[in-house]
Amino acid sequence: MTKKIVTLSGDGIGPEIMEAGLEVLAAVAEKIGFDYVLEAKDFGGVAIDKQGLPLPAETLVAAKNADAILLAAIGHPKYNSAKVRPEQGLLAIRKALGLYANVRPLKIYSELKGLSPIRNVENVDFVVIRELTGGVYFGEHTLEEDKARDVNDYTADEIRRILRFAFETARKRPRKLVTSVDKQNVLATSKLWRKIADEVALDYPDVTLEHQLVDSCAMLLITNPQKFDVIVTENLFGDILTDEASSLAGTLGVMPSSSHGVGGLALYEPIHGSAPDIAGQGIANPVSMILSVAMMLRESFELENGATLIENAVEKTFTDGVLTQDLGGRATTKEMTDAILARL
Ligand code: NAD
Ligand code: IPM
Ligand code: MN
């Protein structure tokens, strides 16, 4: 059966890295006999410019009818004080598709160890499960001249399903350790979070649960990153901790993600943004997008062989010293992509 993949290239470096990701997808598909069609749709700033809103109805309809969605990046400073912003489209598509579980793995490639500002990144291997459709992102926001308010809401059901997702993830990993991150010493939502985490843990006697406050977790990510296996946390904390974690890998440019919901439809995107500071120069690191394609093959299409082909080719490319600027090298997006293609 031909699979339908909707592509949302978005803004800034988005189209540059999407092109790279799709080249790799085409080459791998050819090798493993994966049959797919692509449908490109407007999303983010480009959609605002063309159609007046960041998530046009036809884009959402196409996404809903897809077998998987690839998203590159959205956003541009020119919308910073605009009423209609690209980021609203990103939150809207996550919510509309019910993509509550954002999976952000951190793998340290041995060739990149020297790049991290952190000295000790030996044996770091964890995944952050970020709650993606609740919390302060989706609470009421009011902005007045002299006061502002953002509401952080979580229901027990929202917390339970993301904790279950984390425990299921941990169950498939050798260490079987879940670290639930909250701010239980201050926030009511975190008090509920911790209570539910303890309850869910009773259903997973084979998995160990630890609790960690978010501030000290931020510290431990740098001083003792080996401590972690599966981190599960609310939307805002997960956003912040994963950009922090990227510094262990050396750059945001190697960080992919997947977002899952209830219906089986998933969306794959780098964790970084549209990188306006380097957009249009052809120097963005395409690896985050290429590894997101690998996650798609594995998680949406059960094509472990295709995913592994890509991941091995990326690793080999690093070993051979082909590195983009964010990795301290000089390779352009195209050179990096060609080097990966050559090693598939
Ligand atoms: P950013 O992630 O775009 O960039 C942060 C830094 O990392 C920049 O110096 C950038 O050059 C670098 N970087 C990021 N990806 C890279 C890559 N693939 N290769 C090389 N370098 C890379 O964050 P920002 O600058 O704070 O935000 C820019 C815009 O992106 C904002 O509008 C923001 O809202 C948006 N954003 C979108 C997403 C998304 O689409 N999922 C995620 C984060 C931020
Ligand atoms: C991310 C981004 C988004 C988020 C922004 C652009 C709304 O930072 O995907 O990590 O905060 O979720
Ligand atoms: Mn982010």
Question: Could you describe the 3D structure shown?
Answer:
There is one protein chain. This protein has 344 residues and is an alpha/beta fold. The protein folds into two domains: 1-98 and 253-344, Isopropylmalate Dehydrogenase, CATH 3.40.718; 117-249, Isopropylmalate Dehydrogenase. 40% of the residues lie in helices and 18% in strands. The chain contains eleven helices and twelve strands. The strands form two sheets. A ten-stranded mixed beta sheet has the order 2-1-3-12-11-4-5-10-8-9, with helices on both faces. A two-stranded antiparallel sheet has the order 6-7. A hairpin with a 5-residue loop joins strand 11 and strand 12 (266-268). The radius of gyration is 20 Å and the shape is globular. Manganese (II) ion is lined by residues 239, 243, 271.
